[in-house]
Amino acid sequence: MTMSILLTSCLKTREVIIPTEAPPVVTGDTISKGAIFINEVNNRWSETLNLSNELSSVIARRYDPIIGTDWKDGKVKWFELYNNTNKAITLGDPQQGYWYLSDNMAAKNASPIEVRVTIPAGGFAIVYSSDTSYRAGTEIHSNFNVGRNNSQPRDTLGIYYQKNLAARLMTVDSLTYEDTDRATTWSRIPDGGSVILKTPGTPGQTNRR
User: Per the confidence metrics, is the pTM higher than 0.85?
Assistant: First the structure.
């Protein structure tokens, strides 16, 4: 079930679709819906997160004319994952299952997480929307660019889990958002919550209004 909430600014009124049900609190070792949330999204060359040394090195080695247009003024688009459980969750370790990111609901396994990253209980991980196939180091990169399809008023990000390659792909969370500006994000309030608001960017930290 969903409902519409009208958010009004001095520029225009925005309608945000949010779930009415409270998200589940997940405990134990089993991965299920709501274990990890897409917690925050910036798709406009964020002023709150600079390119990391690792990512800057990737760009220097592999410049693409299309991708290059998105590294505006040394900034990067990004989104944040939030561990909604009481135990650490490790991504990128096939022994603990397979994780995927996607902005294409018809291709949910489009961007596999292949770098081993552990998100502590109640903690965060940043995903650089670098639109590259970079699979080294300690950072998570998506091979798609959030907000690239400007012909659509909204876009949807999802995170998906597969216990093994023969298992059914499970939707752990998804978030539908509109464009942001360089200083704001679409954020779940509170972290992992069902209300989605435009807020100041807080990458790797608790979301705030």
Answer: no
